[in-house]
Specification:
Layout lengths: L1 H17 L29 E10 L5 H10 L2 H4 L6 E8 L3 E9 L3 H11 L4 E8 L3 H18 L1
Antiparallel strand pairs: 1-3, 1-4, 2-3
Length: 152
C-alpha cells in the first residue's frame, strides 16, 4: 500500500512539475533542419487542458507481449493524436508511462479514443485533467507580499 501511494505521489509530482513548462513556446525547426518534428503547433492555454495519462504495464504480460499488442492495434500510429503537444513523457519503473500533454479542448475525445483503441490490452490507463496553476500561484504570492508590505 505504501509503495503504491509513493508511486502515485511520484506520478503526481512529475505531472505537477511539468506544468511549469506548459507555457513555453514551441521551437519549430527551420526548413534546413534534418528529421521530423515531434512538436505540433503551440496551443493557446485558453483553448486547452493539461492531461496526465498513466499507462500502467499489465503485469501479466512481458515487454515483448506488450509491444505485440501495441503494434497489432496500431497504437503508435494514433498516439499521441496530431493536435496534442507532449509536455513530458516519463517511464516510471514499476508503474509505466507517465505522459503529460497539452490537449486542445476539442481533442480530448480523440485522445481518449487513441488510448481505448490502441493501448487497451497492453496497458491499464488513468487520466488526470488539470490546468496550469503557475500564473495563479505567482499572482497570489505577489498579492501576499504586497499585503505584508502594507502591514509593516
Amino acid at each position: 500500500m505504501q509503495k503504491k501511494t509513493a508511486l502515485l505521489l511520484l506520478a503526481f509530482l512529475v505531472g505537477s512539475l511539468s506544468t511549469a513548462f506548459a507555457q513555453q513556446p514551441v521551437v519549430k525547426p527551420t526548413p534546413a533542419s534534418p528529421g521530423p518534428s515531434f512538436e505540433p503547433q503551440a496551443i493557446t492555454t485558453e483553448d486547452s487542458v493539461l492531461v496526465t495519462v498513466i499507462l500502467k504495464h499489465q503485469q501479466s504480460k512481458n515487454l515483448q507481449e506488450i509491444r505485440r499488442v501495441l503494434e497489432a492495434q496500431g497504437f503508435w500510429d494514433m498516439f499521441p493524436p496530431e493536435d496534442v503537444r507532449i509536455i513530458s513523457w516519463t517511464l516510471a519503473m514499476g508503474l509505466g508511462h507517465v505522459v503529460v500533454m497539452q490537449v486542445p479542448v476539442s481533442g480530448v475525445r480523440r485522445l481518449n479514443l487513441a488510448i481505448e483503441n490502441g493501448a487497451w490490452g497492453a496497458f491499464d490507463s488513468e487520466f488526470y485533467l488539470s490546468y496550469d496553476y503557475q500564473s495563479i500561484w505567482k499572482e497570489y504570492i505577489e498579492k501576499r507580499e504586497a499585503a505584508r508590505d502594507d502591514r509593516n
